[in-house]
Design goal:
There is one protein chain. The chain is an alpha/beta fold. The chain has one domain: Aldolase class I (TIM Barrel), CATH 3.20.20.70. 32% of the residues lie in helices and 19% in strands. An 8-stranded mixed beta sheet has the order 1-2-3-4-5-6-7-8, with helices on one face. The longest helix has 13 residues.
Length: 231
């Protein structure tokens, strides 16, 4: 697999732990609002070698507690278990981000105890899923991954990036019915990073009032739902 970058310290990406974040290259989704589009569609992206990555981790032993794996889509890479094993062998906890499109690979990682925390994107209501993800035929696999997390013992969160043009409060009511029982669900504010896949001024953050309406729509099914990064 290709690693596309490293954030050397984060207090936000891995709940409860001081961590670093490593980015994998490549994704099977084409979410038009993706803010890491260079990791998705830029094959010539500068690469972080695994040797350099693990040299960094060895130097930070005792200072960092965890490693957050994000992308792109980390589970696009069939050798992800080997990477996670090497990270854990150095004494780090692992947080895995995923879009949920590879339930078999997710299950193998969960069964092997290779992830201490999982964050799974829920792009939208089922009716609007393919439009929001920019990919066809992926909903059954996403549903399977969500069910794995809901029925398992690994701590996890679901999260949705709220985009004004793509989401309405009724979508969040539908999401709530889907993921009912989840302890952690975050509605995240959209941020235009300047690296948006659709380009230009295509998408915008929702107003705080709309974000609060979306939160209220999901709370009957997920009482612990919260807003994250919404101003």
């Amino acid at each position: 697999m290709r690693l596309g970058g490293l954030q050397k310290m984060t207090l936000l990406d891995f709940p409860g732990r001081v961590a670093c974040t490593v980015f994998t290259v490549g994704c099977n989704f084409r979410c038009p609002f993706c803010h890491n589009s260079s990791l998705v569609v830029t094959p010539e992206l500068p690469e972080l070698s695994q040797d350099d990555f693990f040299a960094f981790l060895r130097k930070r032993q005792g200072l960092l507690e965890g490693v957050a794996i994000t992308g792109g889509e980390p589970l696009l890479h069939p050798d992800m278990p080997e990477l996670l094993t090497k990270i854990r062998d150095l004494g780090y906890a692992v947080k895995l981000d995923t879009n949920g499109a590879f339930p078999d690979r997710l299950k193998a990682i969960l069964d092997a105890g290779l992830a201490d925390y999982v964050a799974m994107d829920v792009k939208n209501s089922k009716e609007k899923y393919e439009l929001t993800a920019g990919a066809a035929g992926i909903l059954p696999r996403v549903e399977e991954s969500a069910a794995l997390l809901l029925g398992g013992s690994t701590p996890f969160e679901f999260r949705t990036t709220l985009v004004d043009e793509l989401h309405e409060p009724e979508d969040f009511a539908a999401i709530g019915r889907w993921i009912a029982g989840a302890k952690r669900y975050f509605i995240q504010g959209f941020v235009d990073s300047g690296d948006i896949l659709a380009g230009g001024d295509s998408f915008h953050a929702a107003s705080p009032e709309k974000a609060k309406a979306c939160l209220e729509a999901v709370k009957p099914w997920v009482p612990g739902a919260q807003l994250r990064g919404v101003e």
